[in-house]
Amino acid sequence: MSKLIDLQTQIAHLQKQAEEIRGKEFEATVTEIRQKMQAFGITIKDLQATKVKSKAGRKPKVAAADKPAKVKKVTAAVAAKYRGPNGETWSGRGLTPKWLSSLIAQGNTKEQYLIPA
Fold first, then answer.
1. What is the DSSP string of 38-106?
2. Contact present, 41 and 47 (Cβ < 8 Å)
3. CA–CA separation, 31 vs 35, rounded Å?
4. What is the structure's pLDDT at 46?
5. Sign of the four-CA dihedral 90, 94, 99, 105
6. What is its main location (predicted)?
7. Which of 16, 59, 82, 117 is a good FRET partner for 106, with 20 to 30 A between their CA atoms?
8. Which among 89, 69, 68 is positioned nearest to 80, based on CA atoms?
């Protein structure tokens, strides 16, 4: 037999064993859960609750849907302060744009591209 067929046979055998073990452990797990539910007085309704009671005085985590939406600040547009040879503009705020950086690297100055007020 080829190695592939041997491996596939082993896989099928192991999957069958896994299902058998799962079936045996399933009943034991369900029994254990029922015992713990009875010991702690937990009901199905408790399990279906949306919020979990806090532990040791900690506040429960707030779901994302319960948090108020963040309001984004609206800022006014800033007029362009610099204009490049191909019509590019820059307000002078933030990082220097690539088009201006490359012009400065070629020996030009920022002041050459200032837009007259």
1. HHHT--HHHHH-SSPPPSTTPPPPPPGGGSPPPPPPP-PPPPP-EE-TTS-EE-S-SSPPHHHHHHHHT
2. no
3. 6
4. 83
5. positive
6. cytoplasm
7. 117
8. 89
